[in-house]
Write a structure and sequence with these properties.
binds iron/sulfur cluster; alpha/beta; binds cobalamin; globular; 657 residues
Length: 657
């Protein structure tokens, strides 16, 4: 027995209660009644014999019964090979999991009907298990009948929720430090005038403080306004640890939000809301008491299970017709790499894909309005190459006039996909493809520590393909990965700047290491003594034993110079931060930089240091760049660098060196 098993042992269940099976992190299953490990086959036998089981995750206490049943069916299917595995998985999930969620609070007769469907579906599963000879055709009929019934009920619930609530979206511009209090008062006033029954906010690291302050004001103005927070800043572990108990909000939603939000609205409109059955929701038993956090929500299998915000008109046409508007679309959600610092896979044990047809319809919908720039917000567009190629082929056949942006993990691209990107780009002069490529560091050890063991040859292969097909890449690096020293970061920067020399289509973005809520990095960081602070920007790495603050500052200033050089006008054959702003002499900075490097015969780091000195000479004292601790470094890179350092000055300075 492991320590974990010993410390979390609980009394076994008996009588009519379902038998509790614990699933440990090593995937072993432990029968708490028999006090022994059991196999999936043995659990299948228990069910066939009419027994009821409940499988729980030993660490999180999440209910894994539906997942385990699906696994059993999968194994049975492998043995009999008679029915379609996908169909059977669908049956299990639709019949058991979805119905259970709906049963969690559908209200009145609807709930009874859902319950009846659930029971029928479970009965079918049992008989399938018992009679391995069930024919594929019959199983399919049963499945489609039960799925149709559930889909119909699902639609009715959605319609009821929609008609009960008048939903309005308030799009807030980013609130900076300067106008913070003014904006806070203005928006709190706006809300006080509207007097909404419920205020729902999307929390990202750049607005968390703002929404926390706003919630306090809204509650002060009208304590009856209920408030729900969702978004990537909400982490189940943080909620369970009570870290958000002090917020002036009634509900928090972690993980995928659509279904949880819908369920919450449904319950709030019923006379006796039942909140305990809504996965992903945290709520308070009474005002001011700590949050009770329900089990995590099982991710949707397919994004098509959630109505498209574009095709259903949730995103207003008025928004899609704004000049320069960018549409964010998903072809998938989640990531199978599961890097320790990342939240793309948070609460997602697998990737959920969108249907290809729906993705194409969404692209058609937005481009028929005024959208000429689409960002696919997937973690890794090439996670399933066949899927990615099918999307690209569909887009090529559709011939929309738009720029596309994708994120790609090095290695998840091949010749064919690269050629499809290039073909799409050639369809119209405006068309373009930008590939965000997360390199982070070229040093293998820190990558391995982050469970992202990518070796340099994969970077090389990917860059060679991008170069061959002239694909535009935005390369991302992270400053301050656990264990990295200044010299390690310098090695990566030297390598990447060399890559930019002969390729006009690369941009380079460095990011300060961040300890995002809900990531494994926070545990690793404790071991490595990383110090995160909100002194300047949220979750930012301040320093670590291998990267003391003076070294970190050196990195921040050098990368600020890189940002100014590479990502604004004068470097690549297009502008990244402000794509509208193009100039004919657009490669002047690039050429001057490499001229100076060759003339002086120095490393990139030495040349960057000279530029840092140059910046110190011309920048005013109020500039973040010259202040002692370089506060708001990333804000300076993005928002200030271009305005504070002119192109002409840069070219002149480099030529004078
Ligand atoms: C598009 C995008 C951008 C665009 C923003 C364009 C725009 N205006 O939308 C750009 C490029 C400008 C950008 C910049 C940055 N971004 Co960004 N970006 C994204 C990205 C790729 C997509 C966001 C999105 O639409 N997701 C799709 C939706 C469906 O997912 P979601 O937002 O998580 O929402 C779901 C749930 O969270 C929940 N939910 C959300 N809100 C609510 C509200 C309620 C009430 C409920 C119930 C549920 C709920 O339900 C949703 C559906 O399941 C995400 C990564 C990602 N794939 O999510 C990063 C992400 C949001 N960005 C991130 C970061 C760090 C940045 C930068 C700081 C990067 C940098 N170093 O410069 C900058 C800062 C921007 C700034 N404002 O200062 C982080 C944020 C981490 C955090 N904890 O907040 C993310 C999560 C990526 C990451 N690193 O993990 N970004
Ligand atoms: S960093 Fe990229 S590859 Fe790693 S888990 Fe996040 S999205 Fe996936």
């Amino acid at each position: 027995m492991t320590d974990e098993q010993e410390t979390t042992a609980e009394p076994a269940t008996s009588g009519t209660e379902p038998k509790v099976i614990k699933r440990y992190t090593n995937r072993k299953l432990y029968d708490t009644v028999e006090s022994r490990y059991v196999t999936l086959d043995e659990i299948a036998e228990m069910i066939k014999a009419g027994g009821e089981v409940k499988v729980i995750d030993n660490r999180t206490k999440d209910d894994l019964t539906a997942v385990t049943l699906a696994q059993i069916i999968f194994e049975e299917e492998k043995k009999s090979s008679r029915t379609s595995m996908r169909t059977l998985l669908g049956l299990i999930r639709q019949g058991s999991e979805v119905a259970q969620q709906m049963v969690g609070g559908a209200g009145g007769d609807l709930r009874e009907r859902v319950d009846a469907v659930r029971q029928a579906a479970e009965h079918r599963v049992q008989s399938l298990l018992a009679r391995g000879q069930q024919t594929g055709e019959k199983a399919r009929e049963l499945v489609s009948a039960s799925q149709e019934a559930l889909a119909g009920l699902q639609r009715r619930i959605d319609e009821r929720v929609r008609s009960a609530w008048d939903l309005r979206v308030l799009q807030l511009p980013l609130v900076g430090e300067l106008l913070y209090l003014e904006k806070l008062a203005e928006i709190a006033h706006l809300i006080a005038e509207e007097r909404p029954a419920l205020l729902a906010c999307s929390l990202y690291m750049w607005n968390t403080r703002f929404f926390a302050d706003l919630a306090e004001r809204v509650k002060r103005n009208d304590p009856t306004t209920r408030i729900v927070f969702g978004g990537p800043e909400m982490a189940t572990d943080y909620l369970r640890e009570g870290r958000y108990d002090g917020l002036h909000v009634d509900f928090c939603v972690s993980g995928e939000g659509e279904l949880t939000f819908r369920d919450l609205l449904r319950e709030l409109s019923s006379p006796e809301p039942e909140l305990a059955g809504i996965p992903g929701l945290s709520y308070r038993a009474a005002d001011g008491t700590p949050f009770t956090t329900n089990p995590r929500r099982t991710p949707v299998r397919s994004l098509a299970e959630i109505p498209s915000p574009f095709l259903t008109g949730v995103v207003d046409d008025e928004v899609l017709r704004r000049p320069n508007v960018e549409a964010n679309l998903e072809t998938q959600r989640g990531c199978n790499l599961r890097c320790a610092y990342c939240i793309y896979h948070k609460d997602m044990d697998r990737i959920s894909y969108n249907e290809i047809q729906r993705t194409l319809e969404e692209v058609a919908h937005v481009t028929q309005r005024a959208v000429r720039r689409i960002r696919f917000v997937d973690a890794n567009f090439g996670s399933d190459l066949a899927h990615a190629k099918a999307v690209m082929r569909g887009l090529i056949a559709m011939r929309p006039e738009t720029k596309l942006m994708f994120e790609l993990i090095p290695g998840f691209i091949d010749e064919e996909l690269a050629a499809l990107f290039a073909e799409f780009r050639s369809l119209h002069p405006w068309n373009d493809i930008t590939l965000g490529v997360g390199v982070q560091t070229i040093n293998y050890e820190p990558l391995k520590l982050m469970r992202r063991g990518i070796r340099i040859d994969r970077f090389e292969r990917t860059f060679a393909l991008l170069k061959k097909h002239e694909l535009f890449a935005k390369i991302d690096l992270i400053l301050g990965l656990p264990g990295e020293r200044l010299a390690d970061i310098e090695r990566t920067l030297e390598y990447m700047l060399d890559k930019l020399r002969h390729h006009s289509a690369h941009l380079l973005c460095c990011h300060v290491m961040r300890g995002l809520p809900g990531t494994e990095l926070l545990t690793i960081a404790e071991r490595h003594g990383l110090v995160f602070t909100s002194r300047h920007e949220p979750h930012e790495l301040y320093e670590s034993p291998t990267l003391p603050r003076p070294d970190m500052l050196k990195c921040l200033r050098r990368t600020a110079v890189i940002f100014r050089l590479v990502n604004h006008e004068g470097w690549a054959d297009r502008e990244f931060v402000d794509p509208q702003d193009r100039r004919p002499d657009s490669r002047a900075v690039h050429d001057a930089y490499f001229r100076a490097k060759d003339r002086l015969a120095v490393s990139h780091m030495a040349l960057l240091d000279r530029l840092v000195h140059g910046f110190f000479e011309i920048l005013p004292r109020r500039s973040y760049f010259v202040q002692d601790d370089f506060p708001f470094a990333e804000t300076w890179w993005w928002a200030h660098s271009k305005h504070e350092v002119g192109t002409e000055w840069l070219v002149g300075f480099l030529d004078r060196l």
